[in-house]
What we know:
CATH class of the largest domain: Mainly Alpha
Order of helices and strands: HHHHEEHHEEHHHH
CATH architecture of the largest domain: Orthogonal Bundle
Number of helices: 10
Distance between the termini: 47 Å
Shape: globular
Strand order of the largest sheet: 1-2
Oligomer: single chain
Largest sheet: 2 strands, antiparallel
CATH topology of the largest domain: Lysozyme
Number of domains: 3
Structural class: mainly alpha
Mean pLDDT: 78
Low-confidence stretches: 94-114, 119-126, 287-293
Amino acid sequence: MQKVADEFEAMFAETMLKAAREAESNDGLLDSSETGTYRELLDGQLAQTLAQTQDFGFEGMLKQQFAGVLKGLEKQQAAAEAASPAGRAALRMLSSVESPLPGGVPVTAPRAPDSVFSAPAARADVGDLDARKQAFLDEISPIAASAASDLGVAPRALMAQAALESGWGRHVIRMPDGSSSHNYFGIKASGDWRGATVRIPTTEYINGRAVTVQASFRAYPDAQSAFRDYVDFIGQNPRYREALAHGANAGQYARHLERAGYATDPNYANKIMAILSGDGFDGLADEGAGVSN
Length: 293
């Protein structure tokens, strides 16, 4: 509960900082989408520090709100321990039924996913995981091929990057209602983005050290929209010209994306290369590649 309270307080502090930033003029000579990104990183780290050093009162509110729920769970646990096997089965059944929190907010189990484009993270053995990876590649293959053609990039370069950013479709950023944001490339919502957004904690590398910050990411209605936006994002940004010049080779494309600052992870290209050398990509050769991965 303390950890949850700290997260709420960090979000609260960052909301205040964001409001203060929006009140400022962003038309200076040195202002750009890049400086806006670094401002967000700074504000996220500052919000975390404030949450750890200041008391905004969230912990007391959470304890008061959930006190009744916690007592009920304790009573249910005690009853389950004293019950017969049949009684324990009945209690498990009751505990799985929708139950409201104080304030009338129902808590229900998530709906089973229809495809990898809407699937939440789930436990799987090695065989299931391999099958899921292949299912992910099969589903995004035609979309990736079209987007890669528009960019002049090897299709498997986009497929490997999407696999890394989305955890093979299992860790796509979720919207507040649990639906998928379809953000398969981890593209943040900069100041010029006019579409839907979702704000979540994310890991960034600052001076070589991993830190958790709050950041806004773009959200799309479907996978096709996500890949089309990726084409615009890469194709219209001069910083990725060198990456596109090496786009025929998936490995070189990944290395130049990292050099251009696509991600702050210093091992970003190596992680994509590891995916490219794994199962599922063996039969997907680079188109016109003249340099080995």
